[in-house]
Design brief:
The protein is of the alpha/beta class and 282 residues long. It contains 11 helices and 10 strands. The strands form 2 sheets. Strands 7-6-5-8-9-10 form a 6-stranded parallel beta sheet, sandwiched between helices. Strands 1-2-3-4 form a 4-stranded parallel beta sheet. The two termini are 20 Å apart. 40% of the residues are buried.
Length: 282
């Protein structure tokens, strides 16, 4: 192809693409969209990935990160010098594609929505426990799930549906109608680069409950546009859900508007694109 510049995203393209660019002496920019399970696991796998990153990225012109936590981990691991790094507001969110929507009626059941792969690292074990506790005392609350599930969760999801604790809609190509009808979006993830789910839901004016980790916390103004819970902590997640349920309707609606404003102020995709173009010299 003989490109003038190469831009790669995610771990395998970053490593293999960077090595190819080194051999061809091509201008190259890498995007680290998250550390991933292998890096988070530690031990030998992390050491191997660190070595691969060091070997491949040493000639990269710049490396983009979606949050400061991931950037700091690379710098601390001596993969990159800090002057080669650029921290973005994730990939941003298209505010026209995800427009603000009026908050759902006060007369309807309080509806929580989870959007993402149903897997351990998304915090679903803690969320399922919290749901069971909430539903013991709050019948007027609904929990909806969208996304594929890992095979080992098939039985769990079926059981929770049978008990009427959750509603599972499987994979959906368009999540906007589900976000529009939800009162709050929940994502108690263990690690994220920058959660697009949270950015899109916030852009549509929905409060968020998510983990207090890099890649999630940036999407929330604590107590104003949502709540942050401790990672891998079922009890704290339960308390944050209960705290939201107990809020007056106006406070919930105000949180939704605060979510939208936060996206406009910080995560507008147009600014992310402009910054990217500037950094790659276009």
């Amino acid at each position: 192809i003989k490109p003038d510049k190469v831009i790669t995203y995610t771990i395998k393209p970053n490593i293999y693409g960077s090595l190819a660019c080194k051999l061809q002496k091509k201008t190259h920019y890498a995007n680290v969209t998250g550390l991933g399970s292998a890096f988070q696991a530690g031990g030998f796998i992390k050491k191997l990935i660190t070595l691969l990153y060091k070997t491949s990225l040493d000639k990269a012109n710049k490396v983009f990160f979606e949050n400061t936590g991931n950037r700091d981990e690379f710098v601390k691991s001596n993969i990159l010098p800090i002057e080669k790094t650029v921290v973005m507001a994730g990939a941003g969110v298209n505010l026209e594609d995800f427009p603000f929507c009026d908050y759902p009626s006060a007369d309807s059941s309080i509806k929580f929505l989870f959007v993402g792969r149903i897997m351990k690292e998304k915090g679903v074990d803690e969320l399922f426990w919290a749901i069971e506790e909430i539903k013991k005392n709050d019948a007027n609350v609904e929990f909806e799930f969208i996304g594929w599930y890992e095979d080992n969760y098939e039985e769990t999801v079926a059981k929770l549906e049978q008990q009427r604790l959750i509603r599972y809609y499987g994979f959906q190509s368009d999540v906007k109608q589900f976000i529009k009808s939800a009162h709050c979006i929940i994502l108690p993830s263990y690690h994220e680069g920058m959660s697009n789910t949270l950015l899109e839901a916030a852009a549509m004016g929905r409060p968020l409950i998510t983990s207090n980790i890099h890649g999630c916390r940036e999407a929330v103004i604590e107590g104003e546009s949502g709540f942050l819970c401790k990672v891998k902590d079922s009890s704290d997640l339960y308390l944050k859900i209960k705290q939201f349920i107990d809020l007056p309707y106006k406070n919930k609606s105000d949180m939704g508007r605060a979510s939208r404003k936060h996206m406009e102020d910080v995560f507008d995709k147009r600014r992310v694109v402009e910054k990217t173009l500037k950094e790659i010299g276009k």
